Amino acid sequence: MKRATKSFFSFSAKILAVLLIILVLPYARKAFRDLFPDLTGEIHTQSSVLEQKLLSSSRLEVMTVKEDGVMVAKTNVVVLGTVGQTTIRYCYTASIGIDLSKVRLVTEEDRIIFHLPEPEILNDGIEAVRVDKQNFLSYAIDKSTETLLLEQKLKCREEYLSNPEHLEKAWHNTTLAFEKTICEWLDGYERHYRFEFVRDTDPAALQSGLFYSVFVRLDGRSFFAYY
Could you tell me which residues come within 8 angstroms of residue 95 by beta carbon, excluding any fewer than 6 positions away? Predict the structure, then answer.
């Protein structure tokens, strides 16, 4: 009787031990990978995939800009003064993004660091919505509508590239769009490391260790942080 009872408890203990191992194994595997994130070559393999994708890609559009405005151009003649005026209501549009061939990739044992170029205007254009001309003498000395629009396009482009608020918004959108793109490239791969995005033109950030990071969780979601 004692032997049967002992055998029963021994068998039950083994079953319980197996069940505990099954329950604990996923957590143990996660902890192991957190401690030793790239023992399986995960970062090495996936960084190679990303490098190939970057080489085969060209540009990444991250946002578009649309601006409606009015420009006034006056025609002046010595002695006579203003002899004509052209008023143009225009619509300026621009595509903002980055050149993916300029992205640099650095791997560490628990992260992949992307050095991203500053966002730039990939393509822009301007069109006249309405043109009003007042000419008191002759059309011959007035600038053409096409010339005036070209000059205004260059002004809009320069204004956008020199506006810190616009550039910060473009940078924020760049990190979001780039993170989404590389996650799509790695669809189907398990990831147990984090991405970090740094400005390629910001040496102060590299020296101080300030990174704009995307931490990728096991559920596929991500969150951002500065540190």
Answer: 61, 64, 65, 121, 122, 123, 124
